[in-house]
Amino acid sequence: MLSLKLLYNSPLSTLVKGWRKKRKKGDAVTPALEDSTLENDPLRKEYTQSIPEAQLYRGVLLQGYLVPPDVLEGLDDMEIRDDDVFVITYPKSGTTWTEEIVSLIYKGGDVRKVEKELLVYRVHHLEVGRPFGHLRFLRKLKSPRLMATHLPLPLIPKQLKQSKCKIIYVMRNPKDTAVSYYHHHKMSTFLGNTTDTWDKFFEHFKAGHLVYGSWFDHVLPYWEFCKENPNNVFFLTYEELKMDLRGMVSRLCDFLERPLCPQAVDTIVRHCTFESMKTNKMVNREVLPITDLFDMSKSKFMRKGIIGDWKNYFTEEQSEAFNRLCESRMSQSDLQLVFEPEDADNLFKSFGRIIHNHPERIEIELAQEATEDDEESNPKYYEPWSRPLQAFFQVYLQSDPLTLYANG
Description:
Elements lengths: L3 H5 L4 H4 L2 H4 L6 E3 L10 H9 L4 E3 L2 E3 L6 H6 L10 E5 L5 H12 L17 E2 L8 H7 L5 E4 L16 E6 L2 H14 L10 H10 L7 H14 L4 E5 H6 L1 H12 L5 H10 L2 H5 L37 H15 L10 H11 L11 H10 L36
Parallel strand pairs: 4-6, 4-7, 5-6, 7-8
Antiparallel strand pairs: 1-2, 2-3
Protein name: Sulfotransferase domain-containing protein
GO molecular function, one term: sulfotransferase activity
Pfam families: Sulfotransfer_1
């Protein structure tokens, strides 16, 4: 068992942090506080100073603890295998949930095989890991390798953009993501255990100051990447997992070319409900090889798991301001965002997906479905983009936030 205090606040830290003295000018990874542009943005500077050992890699702010610079600089040349599987997310978007599902799919749905093995030993993080020899460790893993990353598209290995391997990208609506990331900052030692108020954190999230950057700069490029590579990239949403866990597990089995019998799928679904995972010590981060990554007295790693918790934090003014930001940043994108229960319900009734234009729905399938539709007995296809864009981001003012889709 190791501790961050031992690694970064003891004589041992000279080995871990020695790169800061040895880096040469022009290297890709630099201490974030050496960024001269911080002086022009006091709010960004304040956030950067709150992240221990914060580093900057090709313009993206990253945590300093357990993200070795030599790993980041070695990713471009990392060899990717055709049978690799990557789960990619912006932080707090359903990463752990999807990792557990994928891990169980590769275990044939046999939960006995994961009852005594931590998730971190089954799905390995690409950029976060051992202070020494992390890339070598990843190279030696047996196939198929299951891996995860929060890195934006421009920072992932070059071969990963060209490989035949499978990539699963998970998106969560940005308002709920912001709230979850706020609590994650409070509990995470590597994020500084922030004492900032929600109002201050909201300003950082809206401005894209956070570790791993802007939500929009992360999600939108991966959506385009998915459309360009429909056979290798599967784009799903946290909300879809909440509303139809069994259906999404089945879709993931198909995408990964790992067919399972209905009984095995049912077992995965029961094992991967939020309430089940919240108490599962192999998943909920209460047991880890590093002891002080999280302060569980500030918040639990798996906190609520509901859709719509943002309504308990966003003021009306904040919600309206963020809606305007969504309209501006997403005006040229056909990616679906769902904040309202009726929009989510209509999309699911019409398409079985929130991402109704997901590349898996190829043109011939759409044509066949249109021919088979009986307008008298089936609901008309819901077209959210047929109404003004701003309507898609209207604030839902009812007091009960999407509890229709909360685990019960």
